[in-house]
Amino acid sequence: MNYKIISICVLAFLLNSCGETISPVESSYETKILYLGNGTEPKDLDPHTVTGVPESKILMALIEGLVIRHPDGLEPLPGMAKSWDISADGKEYIFYIREALWSNGDAVTAYDFVYAWNRVLMPTLGSKYPDMLYDVVNAEEFNKGLIDDFSLVGVKALDAKTLKVNLRNPAPYFIELLAHYTTRPVHKATIEKYGTMDSLGNQWTRPGNFVGNGPFTLEDWKLNQVIRVKKSPTYWDANRVKLNEIHFLPIDNVTREDFMFRSGRIHVTGSVPTEKIEVYREEYPDQITITPYYGTYYYRININKKPLDSKLVRQALSLSIDREKITTKVAKGGQLPAFSFTPPDPNSYFPPTTLEYDPEKAKELLETAGYSPETLPTIELLYNTSEGHQKIAEAMQQMWKETLGVDIILTNTDWKVYLSKQTTGDYEIARAGWIGDYQDPKSFLDMMVSGRGNNQTGWSNEDYDNLLIKAANSTTQKERFSYMYEAEKILMDELPIIPIYTYTRIFMKHESVEGWNPNLLDSHAYQYISIKDK
Amino acid sequence: MLNLILRRIGIAIPVLLTVITLTFLMVHSAPGGPFDEEKAVSAEVLAKLNERYNLDQPLTTQYFDYLSGVLVGDFGPSFRYPGRSVTELISIGLPITFELALYSILFALCIGVIAGVLGALRPNTALDYIPMSTAMIGICIPSIILGPVLILIFGIWLEWVPVSGWGYMPGDKILPIITLGTAYAAYCARLTRGGMLEILNQDFIRTARAKGLSETRVVVVHALRGGLTPVIAFLGPAMAGLLAGSFVVETIFGIPGLGRFYVEAAFNRDYTMILGSSIFFSFLIVTFNLLSDLVAAALNPKLRD
């Protein structure tokens, strides 16, 4: 009899625990809380030291810069700066700071920006994005320790509400940079309450300590569980904010994220499992979104290794890739065969080149280079362990073998080994991907300038470097793009990198979410997002 | 008894020291460092970071610095989470992992003991075969398969329970506990059945029945006490195994426990966190094995010498 009682108790406990639970997404019609799948757990929430996409999504809710990214991906909108003037030569910017408050009630001033930019550029802070501000006079020199006096750097507060910025070259993309989290202000008194201007691991980013000026305030940060932000009553445009809270859930596993979306735990996912894309496109066309993304999937070539030192061999490799087949049969996520290195932007810069598929020409080039299938050495292809990268690597292995007769060895390693092999030049061909930090070809083309940290190919071309310098000194966008166009042509002729496809963002979105408009940077200012009524 | 404890502690110290040394050497010999990122960090910044985290010192200096820190309970700062110490991360993850392990072992005991007793009472009948075969399957299915299957059935199709989290929504603890506890429930069932079968054939049980005691009283009061000895001996290693092995279940269900921090630290080359959690897990395993030996010694006087 006793066992029966125990069994009934256990069963009752289990059933009781199930209870009548309404899913968070279902209840959000009332609560107006947005639940987001947000990739890996953020390292920190300090805009001046972090680098990741998950961090950037949270910082968008907490801290606002001089401008805000447009919800439709167009020109940035005024943020902390209500307006600005640009001098005729494009080198001097005057920003007029609006009446806005920090979450503790202090006024946001031009001094906050000077302090923040000083902090980012402090060599001792170890910021990973100081180059975002290198267009400012003497910023690079200060960051590299060549000068010690910050007053020589071209950013000044003329008074509490006027900020003057002097650039070393006209930079038509400068306003776009100001939406990036690295250039956002921080609250000086808070930073200095918990450390010094340049102390790493400053505790100011903890809930309770955090002072921001964005549409939301930081309420709770449970590691590996949730970061909860709440509508800020002190935000200058608080009337526009329709959401009461946003919960950022760290979900680093795409299958779990899919389960969570299907069971109503999150409104928007970060990605969709590759094998589900086709199914969801048929069954839930309203919920799956596939939009172009400002990123390129490419293969990096170490040009210090034979036979890859030969331009003709690199061209032959590129000509043997059927990119259409890779995107439709292998990647299968609506990706676009790559045009060039810079992804095409229909509203702005459209890269000039096209990358052909021509096996016959590839064979000819290989022969001209003095190689035959018999004399070509084996080439190693490196990628970080992932099913998706492996499928593409296998397809490439097959295409190159069929067309050129070259034997490719596939090597996969974990992320950190993969990164370190590229930094030290210990690879032949490596899979790579790059997402633009801001919507401008500079975000891609600058990377291949001689000696840049992310070049990593050993490639160096004086003409290319000079064209980018000319582009930096151009006063009009048209002139600037024409130099970039030429530079990109050189890059696509030399091919130290072989672009494969332009990324797409693929995600699931619940029907209740409104205002989540697709844009190239996949950037969504939360004051424009709402949850509809039932 | 005191002798046994002292002897075990005497062995535990060199074991822990070996774990620290081997882990230290392994993490430092693995290619890639904690500050390698997709956006290449400039040499100046890298030098600053290395200096800050003491990585610019020779390896032997780093090793002895680390050891002297550990002696006073300082496991150093985490490299992955600036501003957080390894001790803080362990103190965030441990209670959750411990709770998960504890509930799982309770679940395992409830299910395992009931199934084992039923099997032993009706040996070689359906009541024996069905639970024991299920137990065998339970032992064989790894949690990496059981977890997603349970999620799909009970979370997605039937919508009875949440599919992930820990204490975030009511009922979200059920599936992880079942997933982690099932294999251990199966072991408990088989151990209970074996123990009970042996005891039920003893003379004192026959005497109890002859005295006219009810079957329930015979089983619960007289037989279970002896029949459960193998299960109790199994609990110590099981608890250690559950704590150290919970990372798979934590990953499947997104539980913010210590196991997840551990795996994440390995991928991120978070040197201090890898070392800290390795030491901590080793300490737990040594402690639980010691506890289990002590309980066994208390139950069986022969083991005390």
Question: What features would you describe in this structure?
Answer:
- The complex is a heterodimer of chains A (534) and B (305).
- Chain A has helices at 2-18, 24-31, 53-62, 110-121, 139-143, 174-177, 188-193, 254-262, 274-283, 311-319, 323-331, 359-368, 387-404, 415-423, 442-445, 462-472, 477-494; strands spanning 33-37, 67-68, 77-78, 81-86, 92-97, 155-159, 162-166, 216-222, 226-231, 245-249, 288-301, 336-337, 379-384, 408-413, 429-435, 497-508, 513-514, 530-531.
- Chain A has 534 residues and is of the alpha+beta class.
- In chain A, the strands form five sheets. A six-stranded mixed sheet of chain A has the order 12-16-11-15-13-14, sandwiched between helices.
- Chain B has 305 residues and is mainly α.
- The mean pLDDT of chain B is 86.
- At the A-B interface, helix 1, helix 8 and helix 14 of A face helix 2, helix 4, helix 6, helix 11 and helix 12 of B.
The largest sheet of chain A is:
6 strands, mixed
Structural class of chain A: alpha+beta
Average of pLDDT of chain A: 90
SS element count, helices of chain A:
17
Helix content of chain A: 25-40%
From the N-terminal CA to the C-terminal CA of chain B, the straight-line distance is 8 Å
- The proportion of residues in beta strands of chain B is under 5%
Strand content of chain A: 15-25%
| N-to-C order of helices and strands of chain B | HHHHHHHHHHHHH
